[in-house]
Write a structure and sequence with these properties.
single chain; about 110 residues; alpha+beta; 2 helices; 4 strands; globular
């Protein structure tokens, strides 16, 4: 299966989502910073159709596309070191949030003694 990346190629990207309506898309900054990246259903209106304000879909953000969520998850971990949050609008299957940015070293409460 694998993944396809679209950078500065709106025509190719829109063709891919049109022919893979049941696929998935990671929308991520060109720098591959996962902070505001999201995983979407290919049919999600937030990444499909006419881009807002006359912008392009594959300019500042690139699209990583696949028919396999597993392949997108592997891509995310290999390229960004982090899983990608899912879109709150189309809600594809998978974890709702990214891993803790400190690697799980956040504040933890100790159980109280009785």
């Amino acid at each position: 299966m694998g993944t396809e990346q679209f950078r500065d190629d709106d025509q190719g990207y829109l063709s891919w989502v049109a022919s893979h309506a049941h696929g998935y898309v990671i929308n991520i900054q060109r720098s591959l910073n996962p902070a505001d990246a999201r995983t979407h259903h290919a049919s999600c209106h937030t990444i499909n159709g006419q881009p807002p304000r006359g912008r392009t879909w594959t300019g500042p953000y690139v699209k990583i596309c696949s028919t396999s969520l597993s392949d997108l998850g592997k891509w995310a971990l290999e390229r960004t070191g982090s899983p990608i949050r899912r879109c709150g609008t189309c809600q594809p299957p998978g974890p709702a949030t990214i891993a803790h940015p400190t690697g799980g070293k956040g504040r933890h409460r100790k159980p109280r003694r009785s």
